[in-house]
Write a structure and sequence with these properties.
about 200 residues, TIM Barrel
Length: about 200
């Protein structure tokens, strides 16, 4: 099971997350308490191995700004958390992860033909478009609607529920942010435990 640790804002946490086995590191460039500057993201990415995905999170940002940030900091993937269309997704130069806030299978069906490889399945929107730390009902998801994409599961995951989530959704990757924090800060022990738990959970589609 692949693991993405999102909302990284300092070098040490990025390095340690990768050392523990993280396959992807997420950098938030949208409004969020975990927002990172271009300079800091560039610094962190400079310490990360080439094979680790460096994912930039954006919400309704212009294509020009996304491409500029991606080029400066060295992103490998773009995560779209706003109202971006499939056409907008196709206009970007890097692979796109399109986030959808799960509020029923009707909305999920609308993304069935979305023209990119990855769909991030998240909880309904709260104060921010992601990273709200709430769980949705995984059993409500119709698996037939997500077969055409690599699913990245997010939304309220932590070490104590990630095994159940993986068993139900059988995603390509799990994505965690607040679930590996203590008092709003990334907790290295929680990151290590989460990654170990996720990677020890057998999954097959």
């Amino acid at each position: 099971m692949k693991v993405k640790i999102c909302g990284i804002t300092d070098v040490e946490t990025g390095i340690e997350a990768v050392r523990y086995g993280a396959d992807a590191i997420g950098f938030v460039f949208a409004e969020s308490k975990r927002r990172v500057t271009i300079e800091k993201a560039q610094e962190i990415i400079g310490y990360l191995p080439a094979e680790v995905h460096k994912v930039g999170v954006f919400v309704n940002e212009s294509r020009e700004e996304i491409e500029k940030i991606a080029s400066i900091v060295g992103l490998t993937h773009i995560q779209l958390h706003g109202d971006e269309t499939g056409r907008f997704s196709e206009s970007l130069s890097l692979p796109v992860i399109k986030s959808i806030s799960f509020q029923g299978n009707e909305g999920l069906a609308a993304l069935a033909d979305y023209p990119n490889e990855f769909i991030l399945l998240d909880s309904p929107k709260g104060k921010y478009r992601g990273g709200n730390g709430t769980v949705f009902n995984w059993n409500e998801v119709d698996p037939n609607l997500i077969n055409n994409h690599k699913i990245i599961l997010a939304g309220g995951l932590h070490a104590n529920n990630v095994e159940e989530a993986i068993n139900i959704i059988r995603p390509y990757m799990v994505d965690v942010s607040s679930g590996v924090e203590t008092d709003g800060k990334k907790d290295l022990d929680k990151i290590k435990t989460f990654i170990e738990k996720a990677k020890s959970t057998p999954v097959g589609r």
